[in-house]
Amino acid sequence: MSETRTLIIAFLDLTLFSVTSTKVSDDAIADTLDGWYELVGATVAPSGGRVIKTIGDGALIVWDDGKHDDAVGAVIALKQQADAWLAQRGWPCRVMAKVHVGPVRAGDFGPAGDKRFDVLGKNVNATAMMKSTGVAVSPELRGKLSAATIAQLP
Fold first, then answer.
1. pTM score, two decimals?
2. Do the beta carbons of residue 10 and residue 99 sit within 8 Å?
3. Residue 154: what pLDDT?
4. Domain containing 76 — which CATH number?
5. Rounded CA gap, 121 and 102, in Å?
6. pLDDT one-digit tens code per residue, 53-72
7. What is the count of structural domains for the chain?
8. Cα 86 to Cα 41: distance, rounded to the nearest angstrom
9. What three-state secondary structure class fits 101?
10. Which of 25, 60, 80, 93 fits 14 for a cystine, CB–CB 3.0-4.6 Å?
11. Residue 40 structural domain
């Protein structure tokens, strides 16, 4: 059963991942992605973020509405930490993030016997379609941020 909820939605992706992954071993890819997933989870959880899913080098994360500054602050911190971690490993990839807020359908979706919590709808798609070269925040979300958080945006 799903319900309509207003959530803060973030899509994260690593630039140059596809190109870089053709130049390293499968072990290096697996090790790097596992470290990336760990870093994502450890960075967003304290702010109330929930990792909905990862696929390859991408991640979908949500926060409850009202945690606007916490969510954007976590995304900024994650970009800084992950970019440094990737550089230290010799990977040219950098985090690209898109963050938006709006109503979504949230609930358990999937095949019978294997349903998992997910978020679906126009605002999830709108977030995925945003253009970003670093951390992009939608106008809807920017209007809910404190001046201190806005000042931290790259």
1. 0.95
2. yes
3. 82
4. 3.30.70.1230
5. 10
6. 999 999 999 999 999 999 99
7. 1
8. 16
9. strand
10. 93
11. 2-152
